[in-house]
């Protein structure tokens, strides 16, 4: 999106980084599988077409983390780019909105609300004393379709008042347009859906969805960020696995039915995923129309999507679901890559098995990996600085000391926050995943969500060490440029968002240390 949706990425404060036909063929998972695995050809998809998809991904220059392709309810291909794996829960960003919409669908189905209910009736204590006519006219349906009448996203206004409830801040924001007459991608509107659900049920979204959605679909280990008031953020912040996203898409493809049970009415699925409003004219896939927190797609199907390329594409005509997770800087290019390769590979009948293509696909899926910087795995200074302690100048992160273990087979970064050294291991020009979840040590943001950190390092020259982090339970990463100079060391930081965008410059200062 050209304006408001990109603004969402900034206004959330990047809290999420701050925050089988053959045995074991497709899955490299450490987690139990719920969906059946079949060969692509048996489900009418060519292995060659999927290989074309993988080649197009490589040629795109964009960063994919995972994908999963379903046909007729079966997984026909799946892959994770190391250091990501099937066990990871991935931050969904705005793909979370589609889960919130689903919760509203359950609430409507249970007769507890109507999409035509007035928003302010649920919040008499937090509604302004003299609400405007436009605010009084705002209905739940307007929240669902991003037609609240606000001229700008409400999330910046919400975050500008950290000591005030998010609901009150939303209701205080002027409503410049009559609801239903002005489309504006509005993450605060999605938060209000979760707040209404809480008012009606006394439960937050994840509690309410547990017996209705998560348990039936066998979605486990999820987590969802919360506002200061303890409500799920609703418009972002949900983390589930790639297969969990696929199951969610399959539920919608099956018109709300799961394992013979109708979880959501077909009528609600149709209503939620059809075009309810015009959207952003002239903005490619974002101009195809919007439903209830679902976007329409150029080829005629629909999707839930989130910032940096978290996609759940549901293709009813093809009886297929495509899930993609990534850190993409061009979401339209990500979608076009799928449209141009996956869609032509889908046929109306089964195909003859193609052992050679299947074998080649197997190999390519097993070898998927994010690229690593390469310079040299050795430096003449390794022994000089290995296991030494540096006292660190005052900094925003609270780091008092740091050190490096520089060994032939691997390395370790050591950081002391005043409570003893914490360690982050790295591989030489290969990814090493640190098993314990931890917060990004170079973030001063108190709401950063813990993640396992994958690290790789290389020597750019004899005294310059580059260490790359990837937060594998999240999306983003950090680049550390470490310069050794006699008894000094400095670390310059560059986040992946700052490195790849123009409107999020790196603001963190260098760390400076002196040999103890």
Task: Report on this structure.
This protein is α+β, with helices and mostly antiparallel strands and 516 residues long. It has 15 helices and 21 strands. It has helices spanning 4-11, 47-60, 96-109, 133-137, 140-144, 155-159, 166-172, 187-201, 205-214, 242-253, 266-273, 331-345, 355-366, 382-385, 496-500; strands at 63-71, 74-80, 90-91, 223-224, 238-240, 257-258, 261-262, 295-296, 302-306, 310-315, 320-327, 389-392, 401-406, 411-416, 421-428, 432-433, 453-461, 464-471, 477-485, 488-495, 511-515. The strands form 4 sheets. Strands 12-13-14-15-17-18-19-20-21 form a 9-stranded mixed barrel. A hairpin with a 5-residue loop joins β8 and β9. α2 (47-60) runs antiparallel to α12 (331-345). The protein is globular, with a radius of gyration of 24 Å. Mean pLDDT is 93; it is low at 13-31. InterPro entries: Beta-lactam-related, Beta-lactam/transpept-like, Diverse_Enzym_Activities, TAT_signal. It holds the Pfam family Beta-lactamase. This is Beta-lactamase. Residues 66-339 form the Beta-lactamase-related domain.
What topology emerges from the helices and strands here?
Layout: H1 4-11, H2 47-60, E1 63-71, E2 74-80, E3 90-91, H3 96-109, H4 133-137, H5 140-144, H6 155-159, H7 166-172, H8 187-201, H9 205-214, E4 223-224, E5 238-240, H10 242-253, E6 257-258, E7 261-262, H11 266-273, E8 295-296, E9 302-306, E10 310-315, E11 320-327, H12 331-345, H13 355-366, H14 382-385, E12 389-392, E13 401-406, E14 411-416, E15 421-428, E16 432-433, E17 453-461, E18 464-471, E19 477-485, E20 488-495, H15 496-500, E21 511-515
Parallel strand pairs: 15-17
Antiparallel strand pairs: 1-2, 1-11, 3-5, 4-5, 6-7, 8-9, 9-10, 10-11, 12-13, 12-21, 13-14, 14-15, 16-17, 17-18, 18-19, 19-20, 20-21
